[in-house]
Amino acid sequence: MPSISKVFIRHNSYHLDLGRDENGKRRSKVLCRIADGESALYAALAKATKPGARTVAELLDSFMVFGMKELSPRTQADYRWYIESQLKNVFGEMAPDDIESPEIAQYLERRKEKARAGANKEIACLASAFQYGMRVGLCSRDPTKGVKRNRVKPRKRYVRDDEFLLYFDRCPEWLQDVMAGIYLMELRPAEADALLKTSITPKGVLIEESKTDKVKLIEWSPALQFFLTRATSRAPSSPYVFTNGRGEPVTKSARHSALRRVRATLPEGSPRWHFHDLRAKGESDHKDGGHGLLALYKRARVVKAVR
User: Fold this and answer.
1) Per-residue pLDDT tens over the stretch 191-209
2) Which structural domain, as residue segments, surrounds residue 120?
3) Would you call 186 exposed, middle or buried from its count of C-beta atoms within 10 A (0-12, 13-18, 19+)?
4) Which of 95, 210, 278, 294 has CA atoms 20 to 30 A from the CA of 10?
5) Beta bridge partners of 29
6) Pair 167, 296 in one domain
7) How buried is 114 (Cβ within 10 angstroms: 0-12 exposed, 13-18 middle, 19+ buried)?
8) CB-based burial of residue 152 (10 Å sphere; 0-12 exposed, 13-18 middle, 19+ buried)?
């Protein structure tokens, strides 16, 4: 089990590290047995630790271990990055109940110029950690509540067919499959990374949207059939639809690294776009039932809402 700050395991029990005494001997206190479960651990922690003695860093550590289990793997990865790269550095040494809403607002304001949207996501992560902390007794309130997030203008980038194909034709096949999948099925890039072969049915591909929980059926088209057949044949034993050349599940970093390598081969001044722009392009292009962007295919795809 990953350790929470000051909590360690010995002899099948959780122990609280109390530091060293005046003679340098390490002291600890038994909290509960591992078999008693998480609720018993936090109840024992609440009794053994004075309110305010815990830090935000400890709250975030606990959140990463116990509070993110119901989140998607991609969200968990993003939250860990926000915590380790930003939140601990700014709030880590503070006591959870010492943080006030104006400090959250000031954080958002400081990050507005260079990372307006990123700051919103970081505070959303912090809010989730505080909500978790309130449920298990690690803090008494959520200072992010009621603080207005930074205003973010939606991207209006439309990737033209020639801009898409400029990259697509130079990409390795595994990345072509991902790009085509995002475009044809109007997926968020993270949804494409996590797409499982169990989602593929005789009638099409069942997609549960990560942010809305809505389910939609992407009916088969020649283009979709071609790219998903090629993608799933790459690593037959993998549960994932999209894998790289080594049969490993595609990740955000792998996609971006591969696209950067392609971009480096293009003439200076070539157009740039992001993976999530392909979803917007798909939404725009498919309003009229699809339009043969990908060579040799006339019918891009058809979508039916399931619920």
Assistant:
1) 899 899 999 999 999 988 7
2) 54-153
3) buried
4) 95
5) 16
6) yes
7) exposed
8) exposed
